[in-house]
Hints:
Distance between the termini: 29 Å
Oligomer: single chain
Strand content: 25-35%
Shape: globular
Largest sheet: 8 strands, mixed
Order of helices and strands: HHHHEHEHEHEHEHEHHHEE
Amino acid sequence: xxxxxxxxxxxxxxxxxxxxxxxxxxxxxxxxxxxxxxxxxxxxxxxxxxxxxxxxxxxxxxxxxxxxxxxxxxxxxxxxxxxxxxxxxxxxxxxxxxxxxxxxxxxxxxxxxxxxxxxxxxxxxxxxxxxxxxxxxxxxxxxxxxxxxxxxxxxxxxxxxxxxxxxxxxxxxxxxxxxxxxxxxxxxxxxxxxxxxxxxxxxxxxxxxxxxxxxxxxxxxxxxxxxxxxxxxxxxxxxxxxxxxxxxxxxxxxxxxxxxxxxxxxxxxxxxxxx
Length: 275
Protein backbone atom coordinates (compact mmCIF):
# COMPACT_ATOMS: atom_id res chain seq x y z
CA UNK A 1 0.00 0.00 0.00
CA UNK A 2 1.31 3.47 -0.91
CA UNK A 3 1.72 5.63 2.19
CA UNK A 4 2.07 9.31 3.05
CA UNK A 5 5.84 8.86 3.32
CA UNK A 6 6.00 7.16 -0.10
CA UNK A 7 4.42 10.16 -1.81
CA UNK A 8 6.79 12.54 -0.08
CA UNK A 9 9.73 10.41 -1.23
CA UNK A 10 10.19 7.60 -3.75
CA UNK A 11 6.69 7.39 -5.27
CA UNK A 12 6.35 11.13 -5.68
CA UNK A 13 9.77 11.32 -7.31
CA UNK A 14 8.90 8.60 -9.83
CA UNK A 15 5.58 10.25 -10.69
CA UNK A 16 7.38 13.57 -11.18
CA UNK A 17 9.88 11.92 -13.52
CA UNK A 18 7.05 10.23 -15.44
CA UNK A 19 4.60 13.14 -15.51
CA UNK A 20 4.48 13.36 -19.33
CA UNK A 21 3.53 9.68 -19.61
CA UNK A 22 0.93 9.94 -16.86
CA UNK A 23 -0.62 12.97 -18.55
CA UNK A 24 -0.74 11.01 -21.82
CA UNK A 25 -2.40 8.09 -20.03
CA UNK A 26 -5.18 10.34 -18.74
CA UNK A 27 -5.47 12.53 -21.85
CA UNK A 28 -8.82 11.01 -22.84
CA UNK A 29 -10.28 11.36 -19.34
CA UNK A 30 -8.94 14.80 -18.41
CA UNK A 31 -11.26 16.94 -20.58
CA UNK A 32 -14.30 15.06 -19.30
CA UNK A 33 -13.31 15.70 -15.70
CA UNK A 34 -12.53 19.33 -16.54
CA UNK A 35 -15.99 19.72 -18.07
CA UNK A 36 -17.63 18.18 -14.99
CA UNK A 37 -15.71 20.59 -12.77
CA UNK A 38 -16.81 23.62 -14.78
CA UNK A 39 -20.42 22.41 -14.81
CA UNK A 40 -20.44 22.07 -11.02
CA UNK A 41 -18.41 25.16 -10.13
CA UNK A 42 -20.42 27.91 -8.40
CA UNK A 43 -20.88 31.19 -10.26
CA UNK A 44 -18.84 34.25 -9.40
CA UNK A 45 -15.44 34.54 -7.76
CA UNK A 46 -14.54 31.24 -6.14
CA UNK A 47 -11.85 29.76 -3.94
CA UNK A 48 -10.88 26.28 -5.22
CA UNK A 49 -8.54 23.52 -4.10
CA UNK A 50 -7.15 20.66 -6.20
CA UNK A 51 -6.38 17.67 -3.96
CA UNK A 52 -3.33 15.62 -4.96
CA UNK A 53 -2.73 18.01 -7.84
CA UNK A 54 0.26 16.09 -9.20
CA UNK A 55 1.79 17.86 -12.17
CA UNK A 56 -0.96 20.48 -12.03
CA UNK A 57 -3.02 19.91 -15.18
CA UNK A 58 -6.45 19.85 -13.52
CA UNK A 59 -5.82 22.94 -11.42
CA UNK A 60 -4.38 24.74 -14.46
CA UNK A 61 -7.39 23.88 -16.63
CA UNK A 62 -9.76 25.29 -14.01
CA UNK A 63 -7.69 28.45 -13.55
CA UNK A 64 -7.57 29.02 -17.31
CA UNK A 65 -11.32 28.55 -17.76
CA UNK A 66 -12.34 30.54 -14.68
CA UNK A 67 -10.28 33.68 -14.34
CA UNK A 68 -12.50 34.70 -11.44
CA UNK A 69 -11.31 31.65 -9.50
CA UNK A 70 -8.44 31.52 -7.05
CA UNK A 71 -7.09 28.01 -7.56
CA UNK A 72 -4.62 26.22 -5.30
CA UNK A 73 -3.10 22.84 -6.09
CA UNK A 74 -1.81 20.80 -3.13
CA UNK A 75 0.29 17.65 -3.26
CA UNK A 76 2.42 15.76 -0.78
CA UNK A 77 5.28 15.41 -3.28
CA UNK A 78 7.66 18.37 -3.53
CA UNK A 79 8.93 16.95 -6.81
CA UNK A 80 5.45 16.95 -8.35
CA UNK A 81 4.76 20.45 -7.07
CA UNK A 82 8.01 21.60 -8.68
CA UNK A 83 6.84 20.16 -12.02
CA UNK A 84 3.47 21.87 -11.65
CA UNK A 85 5.07 25.23 -10.88
CA UNK A 86 7.47 24.90 -13.80
CA UNK A 87 4.74 24.20 -16.37
CA UNK A 88 1.70 26.14 -15.18
CA UNK A 89 2.06 29.82 -14.41
CA UNK A 90 -1.10 31.91 -14.02
CA UNK A 91 -1.93 34.87 -11.81
CA UNK A 92 -4.88 33.04 -10.25
CA UNK A 93 -3.07 29.72 -9.73
CA UNK A 94 -0.64 28.58 -7.05
CA UNK A 95 0.75 25.29 -5.82
CA UNK A 96 1.92 24.13 -2.42
CA UNK A 97 3.58 21.07 -0.96
CA UNK A 98 1.11 20.06 1.72
CA UNK A 99 -1.28 17.49 3.06
CA UNK A 100 -4.56 18.28 1.29
CA UNK A 101 -6.55 18.23 4.54
CA UNK A 102 -4.21 20.74 6.14
CA UNK A 103 -4.28 22.87 2.99
CA UNK A 104 -8.08 22.81 2.93
CA UNK A 105 -8.32 24.03 6.52
CA UNK A 106 -5.86 26.82 5.79
CA UNK A 107 -7.73 27.96 2.69
CA UNK A 108 -11.22 27.74 4.20
CA UNK A 109 -13.87 28.62 3.36
CA UNK A 110 -13.62 26.86 0.00
CA UNK A 111 -16.24 27.03 -2.74
CA UNK A 112 -14.95 24.11 -4.81
CA UNK A 113 -12.78 21.07 -4.16
CA UNK A 114 -11.58 18.99 -7.12
CA UNK A 115 -9.29 16.06 -7.69
CA UNK A 116 -8.16 13.81 -10.51
CA UNK A 117 -7.55 10.43 -8.91
CA UNK A 118 -6.18 12.03 -5.76
CA UNK A 119 -8.62 10.92 -3.06
CA UNK A 120 -8.10 7.14 -2.99
CA UNK A 121 -5.27 7.05 -0.47
CA UNK A 122 -6.83 8.49 2.68
CA UNK A 123 -6.26 6.23 5.68
CA UNK A 124 -9.74 7.10 7.00
CA UNK A 125 -11.92 8.37 4.13
CA UNK A 126 -14.91 9.37 6.27
CA UNK A 127 -12.71 11.45 8.55
CA UNK A 128 -10.93 12.98 5.55
CA UNK A 129 -14.08 13.94 3.66
CA UNK A 130 -15.59 15.26 6.90
CA UNK A 131 -12.65 17.62 7.27
CA UNK A 132 -13.00 18.67 3.64
CA UNK A 133 -16.71 19.36 4.14
CA UNK A 134 -15.90 21.45 7.22
CA UNK A 135 -13.56 23.57 5.08
CA UNK A 136 -16.21 24.14 2.40
CA UNK A 137 -18.97 26.76 2.33
CA UNK A 138 -22.56 25.46 2.52
CA UNK A 139 -23.51 24.75 -1.07
CA UNK A 140 -19.88 24.42 -2.13
CA UNK A 141 -19.09 21.60 -4.49
CA UNK A 142 -16.86 18.55 -4.62
CA UNK A 143 -15.85 17.00 -7.98
CA UNK A 144 -13.38 14.14 -8.31
CA UNK A 145 -12.49 11.18 -10.48
CA UNK A 146 -11.41 7.72 -9.38
CA UNK A 147 -10.98 4.35 -11.05
CA UNK A 148 -14.04 2.15 -11.45
CA UNK A 149 -13.90 -1.64 -11.09
CA UNK A 150 -10.68 -3.51 -11.80
CA UNK A 151 -12.60 -5.61 -14.34
CA UNK A 152 -13.16 -2.42 -16.36
CA UNK A 153 -9.46 -1.52 -16.21
CA UNK A 154 -7.57 -4.49 -17.71
CA UNK A 155 -4.26 -2.58 -17.81
CA UNK A 156 -4.15 -3.13 -14.03
CA UNK A 157 -4.02 -6.94 -14.19
CA UNK A 158 -1.52 -7.61 -16.99
CA UNK A 159 0.81 -9.46 -14.62
CA UNK A 160 -1.07 -8.94 -11.38
CA UNK A 161 -4.09 -10.93 -10.21
CA UNK A 162 -7.24 -8.91 -9.67
CA UNK A 163 -7.50 -8.01 -5.97
CA UNK A 164 -10.11 -9.75 -3.91
CA UNK A 165 -13.08 -7.59 -3.02
CA UNK A 166 -12.92 -6.52 0.58
CA UNK A 167 -15.82 -5.63 2.84
CA UNK A 168 -13.66 -2.89 4.36
CA UNK A 169 -12.03 0.13 2.79
CA UNK A 170 -8.49 -0.41 1.48
CA UNK A 171 -6.53 2.67 0.35
CA UNK A 172 -5.19 2.40 -3.18
CA UNK A 173 -6.02 2.97 -6.85
CA UNK A 174 -9.34 1.10 -6.61
CA UNK A 175 -10.41 2.25 -3.16
CA UNK A 176 -13.59 3.88 -4.53
CA UNK A 177 -14.33 1.37 -7.28
CA UNK A 178 -17.65 0.47 -5.61
CA UNK A 179 -20.02 3.44 -6.07
CA UNK A 180 -22.29 2.34 -3.24
CA UNK A 181 -19.38 2.34 -0.82
CA UNK A 182 -18.26 5.71 -2.14
CA UNK A 183 -21.74 7.17 -1.67
CA UNK A 184 -21.83 5.85 1.90
CA UNK A 185 -18.50 7.51 2.69
CA UNK A 186 -19.62 10.87 1.33
CA UNK A 187 -22.99 10.72 3.10
CA UNK A 188 -21.33 9.86 6.40
CA UNK A 189 -18.94 12.78 5.91
CA UNK A 190 -21.71 15.33 5.41
CA UNK A 191 -21.85 15.65 1.63
CA UNK A 192 -25.26 15.69 -0.06
CA UNK A 193 -26.49 14.87 -3.56
CA UNK A 194 -23.51 12.60 -4.22
CA UNK A 195 -23.66 11.31 -7.78
CA UNK A 196 -21.23 9.08 -9.69
CA UNK A 197 -21.18 8.90 -13.49
CA UNK A 198 -19.33 5.99 -15.10
CA UNK A 199 -16.96 7.28 -17.76
CA UNK A 200 -15.15 4.97 -20.14
CA UNK A 201 -11.95 6.20 -21.73
CA UNK A 202 -8.79 5.06 -23.50
CA UNK A 203 -5.83 4.65 -21.18
CA UNK A 204 -2.80 5.24 -23.41
CA UNK A 205 0.31 3.59 -22.05
CA UNK A 206 2.55 3.88 -25.12
CA UNK A 207 2.84 5.79 -28.37
CA UNK A 208 5.25 6.28 -31.25
CA UNK A 209 7.51 4.02 -33.29
CA UNK A 210 8.57 2.20 -30.13
CA UNK A 211 5.11 2.18 -28.58
CA UNK A 212 5.55 -1.16 -26.84
CA UNK A 213 8.87 -0.21 -25.27
CA UNK A 214 7.34 3.13 -24.27
CA UNK A 215 4.56 1.21 -22.56
CA UNK A 216 7.02 -1.12 -20.85
CA UNK A 217 9.02 1.84 -19.59
CA UNK A 218 5.88 3.44 -18.18
CA UNK A 219 4.22 0.42 -16.58
CA UNK A 220 7.42 -0.84 -14.99
CA UNK A 221 7.66 2.42 -13.07
CA UNK A 222 4.03 3.29 -12.24
CA UNK A 223 1.03 1.15 -11.40
CA UNK A 224 0.26 -2.45 -10.36
CA UNK A 225 2.76 -4.04 -12.75
CA UNK A 226 5.54 -1.88 -11.34
CA UNK A 227 4.64 -2.93 -7.80
CA UNK A 228 4.48 -6.60 -8.81
CA UNK A 229 7.91 -6.47 -10.40
CA UNK A 230 9.41 -4.58 -7.48
CA UNK A 231 8.06 -7.08 -4.95
CA UNK A 232 8.88 -10.21 -6.96
CA UNK A 233 11.89 -12.39 -6.28
CA UNK A 234 14.79 -11.56 -8.56
CA UNK A 235 14.58 -14.91 -10.34
CA UNK A 236 10.89 -14.32 -11.19
CA UNK A 237 11.26 -10.87 -12.70
CA UNK A 238 12.46 -11.85 -16.21
CA UNK A 239 9.39 -14.06 -16.78
CA UNK A 240 7.06 -11.38 -15.44
CA UNK A 241 8.64 -8.76 -17.67
CA UNK A 242 8.31 -11.07 -20.68
CA UNK A 243 4.60 -11.56 -19.88
CA UNK A 244 4.12 -7.82 -19.63
CA UNK A 245 5.86 -7.13 -22.94
CA UNK A 246 3.83 -9.86 -24.68
CA UNK A 247 0.56 -8.42 -23.36
CA UNK A 248 1.50 -4.95 -24.51
CA UNK A 249 2.56 -6.21 -27.94
CA UNK A 250 -0.79 -7.93 -28.35
CA UNK A 251 -2.58 -4.69 -27.40
CA UNK A 252 -0.65 -2.48 -29.81
CA UNK A 253 -2.75 -0.78 -32.47
CA UNK A 254 -0.46 0.89 -35.00
CA UNK A 255 1.52 3.64 -33.25
CA UNK A 256 -0.28 3.38 -29.91
CA UNK A 257 -0.89 0.98 -27.04
CA UNK A 258 -4.30 1.81 -25.57
CA UNK A 259 -6.35 -0.10 -23.02
CA UNK A 260 -10.02 0.30 -22.24
CA UNK A 261 -10.46 1.98 -18.88
CA UNK A 262 -13.25 3.30 -16.72
CA UNK A 263 -13.55 5.92 -14.00
CA UNK A 264 -16.25 7.37 -11.81
CA UNK A 265 -16.80 11.11 -11.99
CA UNK A 266 -18.21 12.10 -8.61
CA UNK A 267 -20.01 15.30 -7.68
CA UNK A 268 -21.41 16.27 -4.27
CA UNK A 269 -22.59 19.33 -2.34
CA UNK A 270 -21.46 20.56 1.06
CA UNK A 271 -24.35 21.00 3.47
CA UNK A 272 -22.64 23.00 6.16
CA UNK A 273 -24.11 20.66 8.76
CA UNK A 274 -22.04 19.24 11.60
CA UNK A 275 -21.47 15.49 11.22
